[in-house]
Amino acid sequence: MLGSGFGQFGVDPFAEMRRMQNDMNRLASSYARGAEPRDFPPVNLWLGEHSVVVTAELPGASRDDVTISLQEDVLTLQGERKPASSDGEIVWHRRERASGRFSRTIQLPFRADPDRVQARFSNGTLEIELPRPEADRPRRIEIRAG
Amino acid sequence: MAQQVETVGRSAGQNQPAERTMNRQLFLPATDIYETRDSLVVVAEMPGVAPDAVDITLERRVLTIRGRAGGHQPSGYRQVYGEYVEGDYERVFTLSEDIDRDRIEATHRDGVLHLKLPKAEPAKARKIELKVG
User: What stretch of H or E contains B22?
Assistant: First the structure.
């Protein structure tokens, strides 16, 4: 072993180099494979004056495939991505699309009004608009003249 | 999930793609490809892309898939958190079989492109008679 000869110095000058190389390799392989598995679906959060919008990429899903639930300020998306095909004799050339059940919880910045939530799908993107209840909105407080 | 094109395009041993004029992200769509007895099926995920923004070309045996995302942003809102970026999609495949161009079927629904490429009939073997000298 290369490193063992340095035992008498108490430090291994190559240890740091090896560690760096490991880091580099890990970085390179994560790029090649499209990074480590991410939470599905990926979401974006948009903040308006009295509401928040959650958008999620759900290619291939339609309104029947996704269940949206809301509890106080926690939004949950659940559903299933169906496998592409299984009928008949097929030979796979390439299989990159994931399938299976998913569940994702999203913490909202405030409590949302469940009666006024609106959700729509367009081209595989889900958009959920969640308004803040009237009672919870920040109110301006007047200062009385003394 | 879609990957960014830059790193992968190079590893495929292709020439460096020309630079795009628009400063938008370009992704490789996650794609399933399978073969049945009589056709090749390509399924590509392009969320955010409308059916009329999909462009498919087949030149000789090179299949190119392109999709332009609508640039959808809720108006009156500002983004406070992000896990994905909207962008365009592009991917090129070299097919190993001849395709019957006239019978190609393409559909795009819920951000997923389905392409059915029927294999061309193999050229019929012709018997060559020997003339008797």
Answer: none
